[in-house]
Design goal:
Layout: E1 9-13, H1 21-30, E2 35-39, H2 42-46, E3 56-61, H3 66-79, E4 85-89, H4 95-104, E5 108-111, H5 116-141, H6 143-165, E6 171-175, E7 182-185, H7 188-193, H8 197-202, H9 213-222, E8 231-238, E9 244-255, E10 261-270, H10 272-292, E11 298-303, E12 308-311, H11 313-319, H12 323-326, H13 331-335, H14 338-352, E13 361-367, E14 372-384, E15 390-405, H15 408-412
Parallel strand pairs: 1-2, 1-3, 3-4, 4-5
Antiparallel strand pairs: 6-7, 6-10, 8-9, 9-10, 11-12, 11-15, 13-14, 14-15
Helix pairs in contact: 3-4, 5-6
Length: about 425
C-alpha cells in the first residue's frame, strides 16, 4: 500500500496522571480527520511503531525528567526519519528543557496553552514534514518507477500548505539555515509588520530593522538558537506608521533525510493584546496586594503546580522571605517541614484533582527561613475554571502556635 492511501495515524503517549482532560478534547476537535490512539504505558507506546503505520508520535510532558527524555529518544530511534516526534507540554518549558528534548530527538516542542489555530498549524506542519520524509524514503527505494508521480504529489502538497498558511493569522516563514534567503513568508506578515512580503524576500536583513531598538541586540544575539530549536522570544516591532506591537516568535531547524540542516522554520504571532492584558493584570494585582497587606492574617495563593501565586506582607514577615522570593516558589518543598511534606502534598494534589472534597478549614505546620515552626489554621477558598475544575487555592491563616527552630532532620525531609 502506497503512503498516499495509508490512514493518518497519531499515537499519543499520555500518562494516566497527566492533567487536563480538556486538552484531550481540544486535540480531537483540532484534528477530526486523523486517527488518534492514546497510549498510557510507555512500553506499549513503543511497541511495533514501525509496523503500525504511525505517522506522528505525540508525547505529553510536564517537565524534562529522565523518563520523558528517555521515552523521546527511544521513540525517535524507533521511527527514524519516518515519523515526527512532537512534545506536548502543559506548562511553559524552559529553553534548557526544550533543548534537551530536541537533543533527545524531538522534532518540535509545543506549548498546549498556545492558541488553537497555532497549535493545529504546528502539528499539521510537522505531520506534513514527517509524511514528506516518509515519501522521500519510498522514492529512494523505488526511484525509477515513482519519481515523476511523487514530485507532482509533493508540489500539490506544497500548494495545499501554502493555501493553509495564507489563510491564518500567524506568520509562517522558512529560511535557509543562516537566514541569508527567505524561502517563504505567509501574507500575515504584511498585516502584522505593515511591510510587504516581497521586500523581505528581496532584503532578508530588513527583518531586524523593524525590531524595536531596545530589543534588537537581544534578539540578534539569540539567532544562533534557531539552529538548535531553542529560539522562543518575545520582542517589540515598530511598524512604518509608528505603531508598536509585541511579537512572540518561535523557530526550529529542519533536517533533510540525510540528517543535514536544510532550513529554519518559524512561526510568529501578534501578542500585543495579551501584553496589554498582562500590564493591566499587574496593575490590578498590585492594587489587590495593597489591600491584602492591610490584613493581619496570613494570605497565600497556590497554583495547581504547587507554586505560590500571591502572598501578603504578613505572610512574608512570618516566613522571613520577601514577596519576590516567595512568588513562583514551590510552597510545599519550601515551607512544609520535611516529615510532613509528603502527606500535605498528597492532600493538596487530591484536592486539586477532585479526588476528595475541598476542605474549608485545615491545620498544618509551616517553617520559616530561620527554622521556626508555626502551626497555622487555614481558611480555604478554591478557584475554579469554566469547567468547574480547581486551578488554584486562596487561603487565609491564623497562627495557633509558634516554636523554636526545627532540627536538621525536619528541615532536610
Amino acid at each position: 500500500m502506497g503512503p498516499e492511501t495509508e490512514p493518518e495515524v497519531i499515537r499519543w503517549h499520555r500518562p494516566r496522571n497527566s492533567q487536563g482532560s480538556e486538552r484531550v478534547k481540544m486535540l480531537f476537535d483540532l484534528l477530526p480527520e486523523q486517527e488518534i490512539a492514546i497510549v498510557h504505558d510507555g512500553i506499549d507506546f513503543l511497541n511495533n511503531i514501525r509496523e503500525s503505520g504511525v505517522h506522528t508520535l505525540l508525547i505529553s510532558v510536564e517537565t524534562a525528567d529522565d523518563y520523558s527524555l528517555d521515552l523521546t529518544g527511544k521513540a525517535a530511534n524507533a521511527v527514524g526519519n519516518l515519523a515526527p516526534v512532537l512534545i506536548l507540554s502543559g506548562t511553559s518549558l524552559s529553553a534548557k528543557a526544550k533543548s534537551a528534548f530536541f537533543t533527545a530527538g524531538a522534532d518540535d516542542v509545543i506549548d498546549l496553552e498556545t492558541g488553537s489555530e497555532c497549535l493545529k498549524a504546528r502539528i499539521t506542519m510537522a505531520m506534513r514534514l514527517g509524511k514528506t520524509r516518509h515519501e522521500l524514503s519510498v522514492l529512494l527505494e523505488n526511484f525509477d518507477e515513482q519519481v515523476t508521480e511523487r514530485v507532482i504529489d509533493i508540489k500539490e502538497r506544497d500548494e495545499n500548505f501554502r493555501q493553509f498558511a495564507d489563510n491564518i493569522n500567524e506568520v509562517f516563514w522558512m529560511s535557509t539555515p543562516y537566514g541569508n534567503e527567505i524561502i517563504y513568508v505567509s501574507p500575515a506578515y504584511e498585516k502584522i509588520w505593515g511591510r510587504s512580503c516581497q521586500n523581505l524576500y528581496d532584503q532578508p536583513k530588513t527583518y531586524f530593522e523593524a525590531i524595536h531598538p531596545e530589543d534588537r541586540e537581544r534578539i540578534r544575539s539569540k539567532i544562533g538558537a534557531m539552529l538548535y530549536g531553542s529560539f522562543n522570544e518575545e520582542y517589540r516591532i515598530i511598524r512604518p506608521d509608528g505603531e508598536v506591537r509585541w511579537i512572540r516568535a518561535r523557530a526550529f531547524p529542519v533536517k533533510d533525510q540525510f540528517g543535514k540542516l536544510s532550513r529554519i522554520v518559524g512561526i510568529a504571532d501578534d501578542i500585543s493584546k495579551r501584553k496589554q492584558a498582562e500590564e493591566e493584570l499587574a496593575k490590578e494585582r498590585k492594587r489587590v496586594s495593597s489591600f491584602l497587606d492591610i490584613a493581619e492574617s496570613l494570605i497565600v495563593g497556590i497554583n495547581r503546580d504547587m507554586t505560590v501565586s500571591i502572598v501578603n506582607r504578613k505572610t512574608c514577615e512570618v516566613l522571613e522571605y520577601s514577596e519576590q522570593e516567595m512568588t513562583d516558589i514551590n510552597w510545599f518543598e519550601t515551607f512544609i517541614p520535611g516529615e510532613e511534606r509528603e502527606v500535605v502534598t498528597q492532600v493538596f494534589q487530591r484536592l486539586i484533582n477532585g479526588e476528595i472534597e475541598p476542605m474549608k478549614h485545615f491545620n498544618n505546620r509551616i517553617v520559616s527561613k530561620s527554622g521556626h515552626i508555626i502551626m497555622i489554621r487555614w481558611n480555604n477558598t478554591y478557584l475554579r475554571d469554566s469547567n468547574g475544575a480547581i486551578y488554584a487555592t486562596l487561603s487565609s491563616g491564623e497562627i495557633i502556635e509558634s516554636t523554636g527552630p526545627a532540627d536538621q532532620t525536619s528541615q532536610a525531609g
